[in-house]
Amino acid sequence: MPIIVNLDVMMAKRKMSLSELAQKVDLTLANLSILKTGKAKAIRFSTLEAICHALDCKPGDILDFESDSRSPSVPAEENSL
């Protein structure tokens, strides 16, 4: 998947444990761990906002995009919101 989750990097920079972050954003350790390991398929904006608030960062500090030439391109009609 071309979306890279750098949550562990931001947690290390802020010297925050997974359990401490889970408490601050009101998520279970299991769900936060799924996100941290990059296995999550989606994230709610409200969850992303809470994580950014707790870590004092921006979404781009946590999420990154890496182009993958093997991924099929999205047709133009599916690409618009």
From TrEMBL:
> GO MF annotations for this entry?
DNA binding
What PANTHER family does the record tag this protein with? Answer: DNA-BINDING PROTEIN, DNA-BINDING PROTEIN-RELATED
Q: Which PROSITE patterns is this protein grouped with?
A: HTH_CROC1 (PS50943)
Q: Which SUPFAM superfamilies match?
A: lambda repressor-like DNA-binding domains
- UniProt cross-references to InterPro entries, sorted A to Z: Cro/C1-type_HTH, Lambda_DNA-bd_dom_sf
Could you tell me which species this protein originates from? Answer: Dyadobacter flavalbus
Q: What's the protein name? A: Helix-turn-helix transcriptional regulator
The membrane spanning regions, by residue number, are: none
Show the SMART domains listed in the entry: HTH_XRE
HTH cro/C1-type domain location is 7-62
Question: One Pfam family name from the record?
Answer: HTH_26
